[in-house]
Design goal:
By secondary structure, this protein is mostly beta strands. The chain folds into 9 domains: 35-144, Immunoglobulins (Immunoglobulin-like); 148-251, Immunoglobulins (Immunoglobulin-like, Sandwich), CATH 2.60.40.10; 292-430, Immunoglobulin-like; 439-560, Immunoglobulin-like, CATH 2.60.40.10; 564-658, Immunoglobulins (Immunoglobulin-like, Sandwich); 667-767, Sandwich (Immunoglobulin-like), CATH 2.60.40; 775-871, Immunoglobulin-like, CATH 2.60.40; 880-975, Immunoglobulins (Immunoglobulin-like); and more. The protein is built from 6 helices and 91 strands. The strands form 21 sheets. The protein has a 6-stranded mixed sheet, with no helix packed on it. Strands 43, 44, 46, 49, 50 and 51 form a 6-stranded antiparallel sheet that branches. Strands 55, 56, 57, 60, 61 and 62 form a 6-stranded antiparallel sheet that branches. The two termini are 79 Å apart.
Amino acid sequence: MLLERRYLQMRVKASAEALLLYAVFALWFARVAETLDVTIFSNPTNVFVTENVSLECKFTGSTAFSLTNVGVQWFGPSRKEIYTFDGSKHTSKRQGAKIFEAGLRKGDASLFLPNIQIEDEGNYTCIVFVTPLKAEKSSELQVSAEPEVHLSTDHITVQNGTERSVSCNVKGFYPNQLDVIWEKETTKGIEELKDHFCTGALISMDNRTFSVSSRVWIEPTLKDNGNVYRCIVKHRSCPKDIIRTTRLTVKEPEKDSSVGAVVGSIIGAFVVCGTVLFIAWFFWRTIKVPPEIIEMKPSSVIHHLEENFINYQVYGFKPSKIRVVLILKRRENGNGKEILDWNSTDGYNINNVQSMCRNNEDEGRLLINCCEEDKSFSPSEPTLSCNSNRTFKLEGTVKVCPDVKSDNGAELILQVYHDTVSQPKSKAITLDVKAVPPKISNIVVPLHIYHNEPAALICSIIGFKPKSLQITWQQIRKDNNVELVRWHQDRTIFATNNGNKPKYHHQISEVEYEDKSYGITSVLVILPDILRDQETRYICEVKHNDSDTIKQKDTFLQITARPKLDRIVCDVEKPVAGECMTLQCQIRSFYPPGITITWLKQGEKVTENFEQSEPTLGIDGLYHLTTSVKSTLSRTDVGKKYTCQVSHESLAQPLEVDWVVDQLILAPKLTEVTVDPVHPEVGKPVTLFCKAYDFYPKDNEIFWLKGFEKTEGGIEMGDIVFDGSSGSYSRWSKRTFTPTYVDHGKEFKMQILHTGTSNKPVSSSHVLTIFGMPYVEDIKLDPPEAKYGSYLTMTCRITNFLPQDIDAAWQQNGNRVVKGITVKGPVKEKDGCFSVTSQLRIIPTAVNFNQEFSFQVCHIKLKAPVIKRTVLILPALSPTLSSINVDPNSPEVNQKLTLSVTLTKYAPAAVKVRWFKNKTPCSEVINQPAEIAEDGLFSSVTSTEFVVTEKDHKCVISCEVSHPATKEVQEKTYWLFLKGIENEESPYSNLPKDEGVSQITCKTPHPQAGQPVTMSCTVTGSALEDSHITWYKDIYPLDETNCIKNKSFETGVGFTTALTYTPKQEDDNCHFQVDIITEMDPISRYFTLKLT
């Protein structure tokens, strides 16, 4: 079968939109211009009955595709739909048919058909849609059934002078085109028989295969003895001919004495048979059989403008003369019109029946009267044939291509005229023409939908006819449902927006296919906002009235925002080699918060000294953060590149920003200051020498200092020298002077101010010691940090004294210490002077909190004692409070009551204690002096006393302890119940419990210094106007009413109180408190603020 050339007619509607709209659709139309190629199985393809076959259909294009954008349709014989795939759903209309999804992902839409049957033969069409493209190919599948061939005998014996026949039976073959040839093989060769055989008419079996029988008559002579007769069958299902053989044996007839009697009997038999045959022939010739209309129906469902066939069959009539009329009645044409008037001739009589049966062909003359043509109905010439029972049948076909608007409900009437009926027989069918409903693809959205960037939502509607269609786009948010745009009858209607221009654009692309079906691609361009449109649902609804179909697809927006990178900032203007610098980069305007940041140095990942803040949500709904990396540069780093690389799900490729080390400062290095002579003496000149080296650039200035005072005299400077090997400079300086006793123990230093590091002068120092005068080093602690209850050793060393007699003492707060002291020395050193080491070992307690310890040295050469001091830095610890102890346990009215709290494990000793009874301060408060406990920390007891009265029943006793050193305030409470009056009503019996007041919660995630922080507390069961609210920071009330917001519930019962405070860095771990008094009932809540 020749394939018709496919064509595609596209009609694209364009309208003048804003420049932004054209830019958005430029990419989309580029996709439409791309090609989609389909290859299908070879034409024709031959298969056998009951085989499993795979009909190849592969598609390729220039763009990668997703299965959600792919649609596949397979049509079989008579354009019957066999299989569909719509991007997610498989629908099979033929048992066992299947398309494998794994193959679809690779562009393979091949159709698998198991157990092929004869009815599977025909044209197959594969249609592939890859939104918005369509391509299709057709090819023919031929189904064959191999014939079975049997001879009636494989050996035949015939008497000389007599006649016998052999039949060749062929059955179960398809199609019906088949040749049967007889050959005779003799000693002279093989001879094809041209006559003496007859092949009967084809017989159609129930399984749609055919059978036929052919018989050869043999009248041999003795010389034919041993001949072989061959039946040869040729059929398309057999690559080689099928041959069946039988061998002939010829015998002499037997002699009989009663020959005359035998001959007489034979003649008599012939006479009787001839008489019977003549009577039968006459009876058959004169009998007539009326026609019967046994079939009039379409081959499949009739669709709008889709080619189909209506088959009719008139069966079992005789004689062959017959007339057929087809009448078409439409709804608007009640009388109808003839579209076919056909009759056969009288030539079909008994004399040519044998010829018809042998050839199975209609060789008569057909007469078709002129009838009015119809664009939707095209009848073909009927076919007249002979049945095996010598009656006739008539088969006809009407090709239809109906229009649903004009031909739905039309009536097609078949009238049959025959000599056996006085009135024509008729049969009618009413056409049910169906519109083809649309197939709607999943909504195609961009891989990433970006905040405040145009995004196109594409919905493709394909394969429908007729064209009339309505498309509606809807937007579903949590708070509303809006119809954005409606397209109908080539007109676009936007939803009203209070008179403002709509923020949406809509574009339509139309395609008409060769089968008169249509495809429409609807594109909605939106400008998504992450605050309003995240998780918004968009619906594309398609309404096709002709097929009474409403379909819709939806999608939920997942909006992202691409991060923006500020340039990398270095914390120093000019980096210095050997010093730590910090590179910082701000990353902003991204969503969602998940983000990966990598620092690179010359392309290699930096893993150490890398910091990244938590993403912070801004008021615009987008996140921002700061990242930094610390690095110490060397001179080899000049020209190297640092990169901040950001990976985010909104990015196809990571974003990068670079910072290059274009210039590097080399800070000067100094040698140790040397002294000449090594042991200076009073009144003799001494020279101090120091060298600065390895610095860049060269500009510098050198000073000599004594302590913190600049000196001028005796200074000599060397030239600035460049070292070509290292690319750095060096310079020396020395100072010569005559020391006095006052210079002993003084620090002399050389200081260099370098151009690149002028804010960080570099110095090298030397403590001048006059020979024989004691030098006292600073006190050293072991361990360096003192701890309560653990041993601490303080060491002080004295060197360079002569003579060896020396006096040294340890003091604590100005008082001499005599215990825990060990002394090593005096020891004579190599230079002839002496040294001594003194140690003081103690166990620090809370008494030693911030105490001063000193070491005093006296010597004959010292005009005044030398004193070295150190202060013990011990941590301040807030007291641990016991529960309130009550004495007696069950107090009675008029009885003296003592309530006490024990304070333990605190330092220093200063505390402030207040007792309250129903928030009223108690006057009788007794605070015992703090004492050192075994753990080395303070312990004390505070108490209050009063005589109980009846109104004290169920009152609240509280003890508030403030510790100034730790700024912590603690409180213990006790409900007082008096013995003997538990059931009596008390004026305080209605005090509320704590369930009505929530804990303080921080509403600001990741609170930071310098940024406002909001804390709130919720109260239920009380009105705001009946409550008194006080907020505290540590122990100090907050009076700023502008930072405290109180809001009542809508019911009027209950409220929320909130404090907004901007903390400083030193406010980390500070304490906040809210006191809420409702109808004289006090409730307190506490919160510790921790900064990130």
